[in-house]
Amino acid sequence: MDEHKKKSTQDLDRTTETTTFQIESLLADVKRGRVRIPPFQNPFRWEDHDRQKLLDSLYRGYPIGILLFWETHAPPSLVRLGRFSIHASERNDALWVVDGQQRILALLDAFWPSEEDSAFFFDLDHEDPIPFKKAHKKTDRCRAFALASDDPSA
After folding, report:
1. pLDDT digits (tens, 9 = 90+) for 126-142
2. How much is the average pLDDT of 80-96?
3. What does the alpha-carbon distance between residue 42 and residue 27 come to, in Å, rounded to a whole number?
């Protein structure tokens, strides 16, 4: 085998790896600036009903699909993920989102709701097919669905 052909074959010798993330650890990676959105990705498009369905699937233990990342170098930058901006340092283990951006941004909105936006809450008073409802900031009888109260941009 000539040297050029051998080198190109070695370049393709990379293997894929499957990693299971807990939601908390995935969102912590977002907060630390490890998760990056490449410029070719579309902007956030999900509506409230899409986010409700995602939360309902998580609650019921249904699969929510695979998140596909490319782990590689990322320079220091201001990372924008939906309404979040994170000053991220240079990393050699950055996770560039290839597939799953809408789900990641929906989780950010669910677990770190802003004061201006409405959050979702789990409605214990009703037996609806999807028990997650939209809570506006003036709603006082409902608790927002949140596992983390930290602001990821801090």
Report:
1. 666 566 666 554 443 33
2. 91
3. 20
111 in a structural domain: yes
Enumerate the β-bridge partners of residue 69: 97
Phi and psi torsions of 51, nearest 5°: -65, -40
Task: Count CA atoms within 13 Å of residue 92 on its CB side.
Answer: 0
Measuring CA to CA, which residue among 42, 62, 45, 43 is closest to residue 53? 62
Q: What are phi and psi of 153, to 5 degrees?
A: -85, -5
Is 2 a member of any domain? no
Q: Is residue 36 part of a domain?
A: yes
Higher pLDDT: 37 or 9? It is: 37
- pLDDT band of 17, cuts 50, 70, 90: confident
Q: Number of folded domains in the chain? A: 1
* Domain of 63, in residue numbers: 23-135
Instruction: Write out the H or E segment, with its range, that includes residue 52.
Output: helix 48-60
- pLDDT, mean over the chain: 76
In a domain, 32, yes or no: yes
71's enclosing H/E stretch is: strand 68-74
From residue 86, alpha-carbon distances to 138, 146, 154 in Å are: 28, 20, 8
State the DSSP H helix or E strand holding residue 11, giving kind and residue range, or none if neither. Answer: helix 3-11
